[in-house]
Amino acid sequence: MLDKPLTPAGERILAVASELFYARGIRAVGVDLIAEEAGTTKKTLYDRFGSKDGLVQRYLTRRYALWCDHVTEFVDALEPGDARILGVYDALDVWMRDNHRGCGFVNAFAEFGGTDSPVLAIIESEKAWTRSLFARLASEAGYPDAEQLGTRLSVLHEGAVVMGTAGARDDAIVVARGIASDLLAALAGARQ
User: Fold this and answer.
1) Cα–Cα distance between 145 and 131 in angstroms, integer?
2) What pLDDT was estimated at residue 1?
3) Is the pLDDT of residue 7 over 90?
4) Is 13 in contact with 4 (CB distance < 8 Å)?
5) What is the pLDDT of residues 128-158, one digit of tens each?
6) d(CA 91, CA 43)
7) Per-residue pLDDT at 131
């Protein structure tokens, strides 16, 4: 059901649900409100998504795709090498301008962690994708042990999101980018 094309009503429901889930929290938003805001009925919502859980999965899957597309487009426009690695932080900075509640996946994990919800696999996949992006970019730039470097860079990335939102540090992404730049400079002599 996650890859099935949506009808116009399904797209409206998903758009409304995405805004509400991100702004208020997934469990705080009921299907009645979603249907009302989307100008549809609960029956239409259930017909398109099967359940609220199905809608939540579609919301996170769509958010994941939007994030991947945003970062990939941003980074691909840069020169290969360190610029692309550091460009992930710049892409994050742009993304966060419209996402003031932090990472939608971390927020969802706060609600579903410790359960057997299928959304946990989507959350884990998004985190793995970002880490693997850093690892791939590090490998392309010639850094040894790119997998380990990718993990280190993604931890900085995740920390910047948390400090920028929950920590109320407006400079968190700039600080993380600076630390990443320092790390790359320290490793420059070991490049292949």
Assistant:
1) 13
2) 47
3) no
4) no
5) 999 999 999 999 999 999 999 999 999 999 9
6) 39
7) 97
Could you report the per-residue pLDDT of 117-126, keeping only the tens digit for each?
Answer: 999 999 999 9
Residue-averaged pLDDT of the chain: 94
Residue 187 CB burial class (10 angstroms; 0-12, 13-18, ≥19):
middle
Residue with tokens 């995405």: 18
Tokens representing 119 are 């959304």
Amino acid identity of 32? D
User: First-to-last CA distance in the chain?
Assistant: 45
> What is this structure's pTM?
0.91
Non-local CB neighbours of 62 within 8 Å, separated by 6+ positions: 14, 18
**For the chain, domain boundaries:** 8-190
Q: Where are the alpha helices (DSSP H) in the chain?
A: 8-24, 31-38, 42-49, 52-76, 82-96, 104-112, 119-140, 146-165, 172-187
Supply φ then ψ for residue 77, to 5 degrees.
-80, -5
Which residues lie below 8 Å from residue 10, measured CB to CB, with a gap of 6+?
48, 49
| CATH no., domain 8-190 | 1.10.357.10
